[in-house]
Amino acid sequence: MTRTEIVDVAIVGAGAAGLSAGLVLTRAQARVAMIDGGAPRNAPAAEIHGFISRDGVAPQDFLRIGCQEVVGYGGSLVSDSVREVFRRADGAFDLRLGNGMTVAARAVLIATGLTDQLPSVPGLQDRWGILVHHCPYCHGYEVRDQNIAVIAGGAKDVSMRQAGLLRRYTDRVSLLTNDLELTRAERQRLEAFGIVIVDGAVSHLLGAPGTLDGVEMTDGTTVTCEAAFVAPRPQPNDRLLRALGCEVDATSGLVIADAFGQTSVAGVWAAGNVVTPVAQVITAAGAGSASAMAINGWLLQLDLDAATATRR
Ligand SMILES: Cc1cc2nc3c(=O)[nH]c(=O)nc-3n(C[C@H](O)[C@H](O)[C@H](O)COP(=O)(O)OP(=O)(O)OC[C@H]3O[C@@H](n4cnc5c(N)ncnc54)[C@H](O)[C@@H]3O)c2cc1C
Predict the structure, then answer these.
(1) 272: part of which helix (H) or strand (E)?
(2) pTM of the predicted model as reported, rounded to 2 decimal places
(3) What is the DSSP letter of 105?
C-alpha cells in the first residue's frame, strides 16, 4: 500500500473482530489495511478459553497467527493508533494515524474493543487477568475448587451472577458486598446456595507480587482466597464512531450497529466489544466475519453502480 493508494477497507483494531474481518475480506480479494494500537483487551491473560479448537491458546499467539493469515492473503498491517477518521468529498474516508500517515479507504470497520475500568482497590490492577478475573466462562474452570472472593461493585446483578455461577466450580465462594445493598431476599437466596456473604468495604488485596492470599476489609478482617472476581465497568473505545456521527442508543449508551455491524453512517461498520461489550473472543470474531461479508456486498453494489454508469 502506498500513501496515495486507496484501499477497499480500513480496519481499525486487529483483535479477534478486526482480524476475522480481515481474513474474510482479503480472501474475497478486497484491498485491506489494518491499523492496530497493540493493546488487546485480554492481553494480561495467559490463555484464551472457550474458543473451540483454540482453547488454551495464549492471546499473543492467537493474534500473531491471525495477523500472519491476513497478511498472507495480501492485507497490510500498520502498528499505530488511528487518531481521526474524516469523510472525504468523494464519500471515501481518510484515517489519520499517530505517525502522521493517512490511510484512505472506501469503507471503514471500527473494531477497537473496550477498556475495562477496574474498581480502585490497591493490589487489584497488577493481578488483573492473572489472579483477578471477571468472567466465569473464561477462567472459572481454571480456579475450580479454590477459595474465591467475589468483590462486589458496579452492577449488582453482575456481582450476584458471578457469585452464583462460581459456586458451580467450588463450595468456597465469598461475596464481599463492598457496601453493595443486598435485599433480605437476595441475601437468603445466595446463602441458601452456599455463598458466604461478607459485609463491609474492601481495603486491599493480600499477598506477595504474583500471588493472592486474600482480601483485607477496612475493618481489619481478612477473607482468604486464591482467586478473586470483580465486575469492571466496560468503556467501549467508540470515540471514532461517535466523531463520525454514528447514532447512539439512548438506553444502553452504545453505538448502534445492526446484526452485520452496519452503523447509521453509510460506509462505517463496527464489530466486537466496541459495540457489543459482552462479546467473547469467538463471538467478536463471528461479528467481524459477518461485517466483512456485509462490507464486501456493499462495495460490490458501489462497483456495479459505477460500472453501469460508465457504460451508459
Ligand atoms: C483479562 C481478560 C481475559 C479474557 N479472557 C477471555 C477468554 O478466555 N475467552 C474469551 O472468549 N474472552 C475473553 N476475554 C474477552 C476478550 O478479551 C474479548 O472478547 C475480545 O478481546 C474482543 O475482541 P475485539 O476484537 O472486539 O477487541 P480487542 O481484542 O480488545 O481488540 C481491539 C484492538 O483495537 C485496538 N485499538 C483500539 N483503539 C484503536 C485505535 N484508535 N487505533 C488503532 N487500534 C486501536 C487495540 O489496540 C486492540 O488491539 C477476556 C477479557 C479480559 C479483560
Answers:
(1) none
(2) 0.96
(3) E
What digits encode the pLDDT tens for the residues 133-163? Answer: 999 999 999 999 999 999 998 788 999 999 9
Q: Can you read off the three cell numbers belonging to residue 298?
A: 456493499
Percent of the chain at pLDDT above 70? 99
Q: Is the pLDDT of residue 179 over 90?
A: no
C-beta 106 within 6 A of ligand 1: no
Asked if residue 48 has its Cβ within 6 Å of ligand 1, the reply is yes
- For the stretch 206-240, pLDDT in tens is 999 999 999 999 999 999 999 999 999 999 999 99
Q: Which three cell numbers stand for residue 89?
A: 468529498
Ligand 1 proximity of 42 Cβ (cutoff 6 Å)? yes
For residue 102, which amino acid is it?
T
Q: All domains of the chain, ordered by start, with CATH?
A: 6-116+233-311 (3.50.50.60), 119-229 (3.50.50.60)
CA proximity to 40, closest of 267, 231, 284, 205:
284
Q: Which of 192, 193, 131 is nearest to 168 (CA)?
A: 193
Helix residue ranges, H only, the chain: 16-27, 59-72, 136-139, 156-166, 184-192, 239-243, 281-311
Q: How far apart are CA 70 and CA 214, in angstroms?
A: 44
User: Strands of 173-176's sheet, edge to edge?
Assistant: 132-133, 227-229, 148-151, 173-176, 196-198
Q: State which ligand 1 atom lies nearest to the alpha carbon of 80.
A: 43
Q: How far is the CA of 59 from the centre of ligand 1 (A)?
A: 9
113 C-alpha to center of ligand 1: Å? 5
